[in-house]
């Protein structure tokens, strides 16, 4: 870590805080703006720069400045590999250096409690043990590079339903053994420098003012010495938050701290000692990340250093995360070999079908979203690989999944104008001087904080933007152009006003944006049109945003499916890409169902009926219903695989790489089968965690409910066996052999089963895994260690240790017994 002697103790920070006035101490306890803490120049206390994560470094700007988009949290969970999490964190540290970021807001270590949770894709796993192993590796690697990690969201923040107010009603034992467990392990083993309190209430009390969880559990029981910040706009009070242990209110300027906290001190409701202790935590963080140099702001730059290596890592992580769910011969009467890897010869026709084929989803929505360097779709990745060797790669969309209009996905040129205070009522003149210009890949555009920090006269809350793009339609017909914005806007096509932005409140831009307004216009294929959006920000809003959409003319849904089936019938092989998008899986709201949006299920059935040589790729970050699961020859879960997802898919399908992932969550047959289903979403502002300890695979194994695919499931292009399994006090060992004819990666998993099960206790639970790449016909010794804290959380007694390739009870082998529990 960087910094001086304050990096290891709080003593120096306390001495520095003692030199601050009360007003200066209070100033430190809230943000200066969206992404910075307040500096105190008199004592050379610089501003700490924070940035959204956790699988990309957004930086201060979300317009113009690109970031490498890595695979989503669920994909990292699917690697079952702490080394992968560490490699990701190391690459993110490089991105932080490019953007001069001190504190990264990640990792997200909430559990995947319910399949339709909006941020399910952002979390690692349904299991606290796997989550903790990955989080410890991530935090350790990131902080070794001088960047503070922020584990989030503390705690029981497992749904987006009424996310700012819902109370998670959790039994104390369940809270400790399941939902607090990954936080405790990460704090004790990796010492993250920051932790973020969640929006929700826990048993009636907001997380940011929960004295029991912040002071008694976090500080006293776990000995945590880092900083506690609120989620953005997650502070709900002044005195309760300050007294409970919330050190930093974000973002700034202060709402509940600042002047209100000064008044509370003056009244005697909050002592000066409490304020000084909160300020000490902020100064200590600044010291630990090297911000005690008095410097305030650094200009960000596009990622340059090691950019190729970062994108290659993104590709490797994606391939390592892909889960081969099924791989069978395409026909019982033909070749007995599984369809994958593909064997395509020159002159072959490869049909790439589906709504996610040409616009593959690389990342989910919300604060985990970044502006990628360059996203490669599955269609384009396969064309890049197979086109040069004479394979014809043809495409049909098959169906659409839009709930709202798709983004205008073309580069845009931005011109910024100052909105002077005296002109606020009449608006900005777009004929005035342009104070800044830049380019951005496309819509949507989001500004948080000063839009251009390096331009002094362009202040947040007082600017306007003219956005210009060239659009060349591929089809002739009636197009629908649309706008949504935070503020006011209008859209022009070749100088003609097509859309006037709505003034009604909508759900875009975290709920601050307007409803979508649209207009229809006839366009001709091949003609280039100039699209101009004139946008003025809403003064007083915490952010600014502009969405430009275009909905092309398309045949009917029946015609789209028929065209896809016709292409499939002519093809030698079909790759059908279905899934969700950032519109469906996003921070801010949960999905309404586990089903694939639109008519994608009908599309899969039609395509497979036309050609049994079909591989289905599920491009989603969460479980989806797959009633057709037994129909395709092969199915792969490719997650939201980051910006290089198309190249990773091409490498895996061709056999140049292998699908190395295992499911970090259980995929149920029906949503109704999931353990949290009877209690979701809740009522009267409360959601009861009635399933208790039976989260994920624990529920399915204990209640004998058969899922679609078990936690830990994942096939390989080779086969494995294990022998000589043994269990000792703190570990299990076995010899793993690659019984196939090519190199592959095995993930041996250990589970614990109590010999005498108490009421409500799981009959089976994950205990650890070992991931090894093994050459054909080779063997190696695998060891799975059990953590001390993990064993201490078990009810005292004897536990059978079982080894296998997933949580499916029928496939597990008992290799010994251990005694566990405090």
Shape assignment: globular
Structural class: alpha/beta
Distance between the termini: 35 Å
Largest sheet: 6 strands, mixed
Q: Kindly state the number of beta strands.
A: 32
Give start-end ranges of low-pLDDT stretches. 1-10
Key phrases:
822 residues, alpha/beta, 23% strand, disordered N terminus, 23% helix, single chain, six-stranded mixed sheet, six-stranded antiparallel sheet
Word description of this protein:
- With 822 residues, the chain is an alpha/beta fold.
- Helices cover 23% and strands 23% of the residues.
- The chain is built from 18 helices and 32 strands.
- A 6-stranded mixed sheet has the order 9-24-23-22-10-11, sandwiched between helices.
- The chain starts with 10 loop residues before the first helix and ends with a strand.
- Residues 1-10 have low confidence and may be disordered.
Write the layout of secondary structure elements.
Blueprint: H1 11-18, H2 22-28, E1 50-52, H3 73-78, H4 82-99, E2 103-105, H5 128-144, E3 148-154, E4 167-169, H6 172-179, H7 181-190, E5 194-197, E6 201-202, E7 205-206, H8 211-221, E8 227-230, H9 239-244, H10 259-267, H11 272-288, H12 307-321, E9 323-327, E10 349-353, H13 378-386, E11 392-396, E12 412-418, E13 436-440, E14 445-447, E15 463-471, E16 477-485, E17 487-493, E18 496-500, E19 517-523, E20 529-537, E21 544-551, H14 557-570, E22 573-579, H15 600-610, E23 614-619, E24 634-637, H16 645-654, E25 686-688, H17 697-703, E26 720-727, E27 731-738, E28 744-754, E29 765-774, E30 779-785, H18 788-792, E31 797-804, E32 813-820
Parallel strand pairs: 1-2, 2-3, 3-5, 4-6, 4-25, 5-8, 10-11, 10-22, 22-23, 23-24
Antiparallel strand pairs: 6-7, 9-24, 12-13, 12-15, 14-21, 15-20, 16-19, 16-21, 17-18, 17-20, 26-27, 27-30, 28-29, 28-31, 31-32
